[in-house]
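Researcher: We plan to redesign the surface later, but first we want a full-length starting point. Tokens attached.
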């Protein structure tokens, strides 16, 4: 079975900016994968090259085994990309635009799938509206529908929820999850890290055009994210032996960074033995944002 996406040693330069510096990435069929990174890390550049909208300076990219250059047509047919920027034709209605896009892929009689897309994306009552008259969030839904018109096995979404309200975001994710359950591979870039954490089982983090982390979401959280514990202590004193765990103090509240929940038991024992009682205790769950900040700042 071919990987859904295979990227080998991809480099891309814009003038003096080295946007991608030897990116290697392999995404298996059926994965729900997140591509994360700060602004300018190279995410959109990589996606544009995958979609055939830009050319790599060197390296190879394949979609379901089809080289994006040598086998452009098949690669293009296998992938649906929801671009970050809102680009649309001002003179088409939503339905016309989707029919036109179907024609581009030589698909006739696509109305049943177009109706399903419109329904699933909450666009049915906008089907005959001109795209230019829609709100920003609605235009974004149209872009999603447009990318899916040929039922691509691999779906890439470049910040699909930027500027999208909560309800819309949830219905969009409901639909994308369904497609993933039905076997579509999903690759997503987002700046909402909780979104990536909830949806994606594997994550690549890009920084200045390089992959700096590639692992399952669970492993990244275990490896990089700390459990933050805050405790109001009485008397307000932290025994020396616990100092290495300290991550700050705010009056009587001491903050500790732990690697595992099990360490908390030890901390409480040390405090009890030192005659210090815990007047208040708060434990915060590690999240992908911690991992992201750690990797991006290092
Ligand atoms: N067409 C272009 N011409 C010149 N420079 C470009 C072009 N496209 C991208 N760049 C530069 O390449 C680098 C990577 O940009 P890219 O848009 O891929 O980052 P990104 O990770 O998608 O960022 P964001 O999260 O802001 O969308 C940036 O420094 C950007 O300014």
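Model: Full-length starting sequence:
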């Amino acid at each position: 079975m071919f990987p859904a996406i295979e990227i080998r040693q991809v480099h891309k330069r814009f003038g003096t900016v080295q946007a991608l510096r030897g990116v290697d990435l392999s995404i298996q069929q059926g994965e729900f994968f997140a591509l994360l990174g700060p602004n300018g890390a190279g995410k959109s550049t990589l996606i544009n090259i995958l979609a055939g909208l830009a050319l790599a300076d060197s390296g190879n990219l394949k979609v379901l085994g089809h080289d994006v250059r040598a086998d452009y047509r098949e690669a293009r047919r296998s992938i649906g990309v929801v671009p970050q920027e809102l680009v649309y034709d001002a003179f088409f209605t939503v339905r016309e635009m989707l029919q036109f896009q179907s024609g581009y892929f030589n698909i006739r009689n696509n109305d049943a799938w177009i109706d399903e897309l419109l329904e699933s994306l909450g666009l049915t009552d906008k089907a005959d509206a001109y795209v230019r008259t829609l709100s920003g969030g609605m235009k974004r839904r149209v872009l999603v529908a447009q990318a899916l018109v040929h039922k691509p096995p691999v779906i890439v979404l470049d910040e699909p929820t930027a500027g999208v309200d909560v309800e819309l975001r949830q219905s969009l994710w409901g639909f994308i999850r369904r497609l993933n359950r039905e076997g579509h591979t999903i690759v997503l870039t987002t700046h909402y890290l909780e979104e990536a954490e909830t949806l994606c089982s594997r994550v690549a983090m890009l920084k200045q055009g390089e992959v700096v982390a590639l692992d399952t979401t669970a492993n990244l959280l275990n490896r990089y994210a700390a459990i933050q514990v805050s405790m109001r202590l009485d008397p307000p004193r932290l025994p020396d032996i616990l100092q290495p765990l300290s991550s700050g103090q705010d009056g009587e509240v001491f903050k500790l960074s732990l690697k595992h929940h099990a360490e908390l038991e030890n901390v409480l024992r040390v405090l009890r033995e030192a005659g210090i009682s815990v007047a208040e205790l708060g434990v915060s769950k590690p999240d992908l944002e911690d991992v992201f900040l750690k990797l991006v700042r290092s």
